[in-house]
Write a structure and sequence with these properties.
Helices cover about 0% and strands about 35% of the residues. With about 450 residues, it is mostly beta strands. A hairpin with a 2-residue loop joins strand 7 and strand 8. The protein is elongated, with a radius of gyration of 33 Å. The protein starts with a strand and ends with a strand.
Amino acid sequence: MRSNVCLNASLLGVGLALSTAPLPSHADSFEGNYVYTVANNKATITGFNPSYSGALTITNALGGYTVTLIGNNAFYYCTYLTDVTIGSSIIGIGSNAFANCGNMAGVAIGNNVTNIGDGAFSGCSSLTSVTIPDSVTGLGSGTFNGCNGLTGVTIGKGVTRIKDRVFAYCGSLTGITIPTGVTNIGDSAFAHCVGLTGLTIPNGVTNIGNSAFQSCDGLSSVTFGTRVTRIGNQAFSGCSSLTGVTIPDSVTGIGDEAFAFCSGLIGVSIGNGVTVIGDGAFMGCSSLTGVTLPDSVRSIGTAAFVDCTSLRRVTVGNGVTNIGDVAFSSCDSLTDVCFKGEAPATWPDVFDSSTNAIVYYLPQASTWYTPFSGRPAVLWNPQVQANVNFGVQANRFGFDITGNAQIPVVVQSRTNLTFGAWLPLLTDRLGAAGTLYFSDPASPPLPARFYRIVWP
C-alpha cells in the first residue's frame, strides 16, 4: 500500500510526519503491469500495460486489496495478449474491457463472474471458443460482436436475456445452444453469423428482436419455441439457406421483412395466432410455392409477398380485412388466390401486369366484385352430380363435378368419419365447359369410403 508523505515547516523548526491513511477512493495506483483503484477496500483494474505479450492469469489482489472488478476499457487494445484466465475473486467485467484484443485466442471466465458488460470482448477476432459460466446473469450488448473466429460458445443457464448484437458478425460460429431460461433475443443478436446451420428457440423465449438472425446465410432450419409471440422486423431476412419454417400458434405478429429474401424458402406454415403479416414479410422468397394464411390474420402488409416468383397458390383466411399495396406484385407464377371470407379493403395494385392470377371466393360471401384489384374474381362453386356417371362402374367409384370453368378442386377421401386424416386423391381444374369426372379404382373393395371436395 502506498503511503502519503507530508512535509510540515514551522517557525520552531522543520519536522517530518508520515501518514498511513487509506488510499482515497478512485485514485489510480500502479502495481506491475496493472493500474487499479480502490473503493470499499476492493480493487478494480482500470488499465493494463498494452505492450504485455503472451498468456495472462489476472491477479486476485493488488496493493493488498482483493480484485473484484475489471473496469471499463481495462485491457482495451492489448493486442499482444494471447490467452487470459480471469481470477476467482472477480465478479464483474466492464464494458469494452477486452475489446479489440486481436490476438487473444482463449479466455477462461471465472465461476464467480455475475456480469459481463457491453462490448466486453468485441473485436477479439482470434477468439475461438468461450464458456460463459452459470454464475453470469447479465450479458451486455455486443459482448462478442465481431469475434469472427469464434466457432463454439457455451452460454450458462444463469443468462435470461440475449441482448442486442451479443454475437453479431461471429461468422465462424457453427452452432449455438440458447439456455432454456432465456426469454428475449435482442436486436441483431446473431446477425451475420453465416456459419450457423441449425437453430432451436427454447420454449421460454417470447420475443425475437429486429434483425436477430439477419443474413445468417448458412441457416437451413429453425425450430420455434411454443411461447414466441413476436418475430421482429428483418429477424431472418437474407437467410438464403432456410428451406422451411413452421411458425407456432403463439406468434401474433410477423414483423416487416421478417423473412425477406430467404431465397431458398420453399414452404411456410403460419400459426393460427398470427394477426399481422408485416410489410415485405416474405418479399423476394423466390422459391416459395404456396402459402395458407389462417383465419386469425387480419392484415397483409404492403409488398408482403412481392417478387415471390415461384408462388403459385395462396389461400387467404376469412379474417383478412386489409391487403397492402403491391402485396402480390411480381409473383409471375401465381395462378390461384382463394379467399375464404368477404372481400377485403385493398389497393388497386395488389397484383401487377406480370401476375395472371384468378381470385376465387366462396358462395356465402356477399361483398365480392370483379375485377378485384385488376384480376378476375370468380365464384368457387363445385357440385357433385348424381347422374349416370355416379357410382361404381368398371370396378371403380366415380362421379361428375360441375361448376364455373377452370376452378381448382381437390378431392379427398377417408374410410372413417370419426378418425383418420383426409387424404388427397386428385388435384385438378374443371374444364372449359365447367365439368370434371373423378374416379377411384381403390373404392370398390372397401366396406366404406367417404369423399369431399376442397380447394387447394
